[in-house]
Specification:
Elements: H1 2-25, E1 32-36, H2 43-59, E2 62-66, H3 71-80, E3 85-89, H4 90-98, E4 112-128, E5 143-146, H5 153-164, E6 169-172, H6 176-184, E7 190-194, H7 200-208, E8 211-214, H8 218-227, E9 231-235, E10 247-259, H9 264-275, H10 278-284, H11 306-314
Parallel strand pairs: 1-2, 1-3, 5-6, 5-7
Antiparallel strand pairs: 3-10, 4-7, 4-8, 4-10, 9-10
Helix pairs in contact: 2-9, 6-7, 9-11
Keywords: Receptor, Signal
Organism: Caenispirillum salinarum AK4
Protein name: TRAP transporter solute receptor, TAXI family
């Protein structure tokens, strides 16, 4: 009896010691965290909400996603610390670091660090099948085109791309779900999407009506590649019911970002939750197929957070010291 009592007491002491050590290890962690995403109905919100909830559950802390204006605003929020984490594309990231983010012109947003690769954002165009718009050169002069939320990757780059291709349009902004409704109601003629695929709003649209998913011609694609920080991309035919074959496109890489001042062990733990089980991430969103260690080198713009860099370098990456914040 005495043996069991002593053993029980010892076990309790060990448990308390482990709990105390764990609490001490997390002493400098924030009480909660926010992930800046984009508008509802877009891939950022679906993907970001998923990994925010996953991290909160796995680490036993309060955290979640916040609807934002997208990559440009996320760079600003993470830079200032108003959001611990966010998501951005490489184009807006570069502009923000250079001080040309339209949210705060002149401010060099260099306190947002890379955390992990997400996926490529293809640029694609959708119109109602009944509109007769089945190619970029079929878009009529003055067409009302929805470019997503103001300041988003789509709103920043797609208007410039279409101008490069000679399209004359009336620019509209809004959340992806809202623009999908406007397209159905005839309030806009075209939606120019820049979002991870499948875009929830497009998937919803094609369930409710017939749509055209418009690809770039080879010549149009080449013009865009010469003018913008994008790469060749093909939207697989399996992405949407509407597609019968792959659609030619261009794409820009997305990365999750962290405020550079966050504790190294905290960001390491968050990165581990997201990156250690790709199947789990794929269940959140199919675009997470690209959320793998091998794509660490797609970031050529942002400094890496030391906690994230430590995890990646322990798991097969080779992030050079001069690409790590403070390195």
């Amino acid at each position: 009896m005495r043996f069991h009592t002593v053993s029980g007491a010892a076990a309790a002491i060990v448990a308390l010691s482990v709990t105390a050590a764990a609490a001490q290890d997390r002493e400098n962690w924030p009480d909660s965290f926010t992930v800046g995403t984009a508008s509802q109905g877009g891939t950022y919100f679906a993907y970001g909400s998923g990994w925010a909830n996953l991290v909160a559950d796995e680490l036993g802390m309060s955290g979640g996603a916040e609807v934002t204006g997208g990559p440009m605003q996320n760079m600003a929020l993470v830079h200032t610390g108003d959001a611990e984490f966010g998501m951005t594309t490489m184009g807006p990231a570069r502009e923000s670091i250079e001080g040309t983010n339209p949210i705060a012109p002149g401010m060099k947003m260099d306190n947002a660090c890379a955390m992990f690769p997400m996926y490529q954002t293809p640029f694609s165009i959708t119109a109602l099948a009944g509109s007769g718009i089945d190619s970029i050169d079929a878009i009529p002069d003055g067409a009302r085109i929805g470019f997503g939320p103001a300041g988003s990757t789509s709103d920043t780059y797609f208007p410039r791309m279409l101008e490069t291709l000679g399209v004359n349009f009336d620019r509209r902004n809004g959340g992806w779900s809202d623009l999908g409704g406007q397209l159905q109601d005839g309030l806009v003629d075209v939606i120019a999407f820049a979002a991870g695929i499948p875009v929830p709003a497009v998937s919803q649209l094609e369930v409710q009506t017939d749509v055209n998913i418009i690809e770039f011609t080879e010549e149009e694609q080449q013009k865009i590649l010469e003018e913008f920080p994008v790469s060749e991309f093909q939207i697989p035919a399996t992405t949407y019911q509407t597609l019968e074959e792959p659609a030619r496109s261009v794409a820009m890489w997305n990365f999750a970002i962290a405020n550079c001042d966050l504790p190294e062990d905290f960001v390491y733990a968050v990165t581990d939750v997201v990156m250690s089980d790709n199947e789990r991430m794929m269940n959140i969103h199919r675009a997470a197929k690209s959320t793998v260690v091998e794509n660490w080198d797609k970031n050529k713009v942002l400094p890496w957070h030391p906690g994230a860099a430590k995890w990646f370098n322990e798991n097969g990456a080779s992030i050079p010291e001069d690409m790590i914040k403070g390195g």
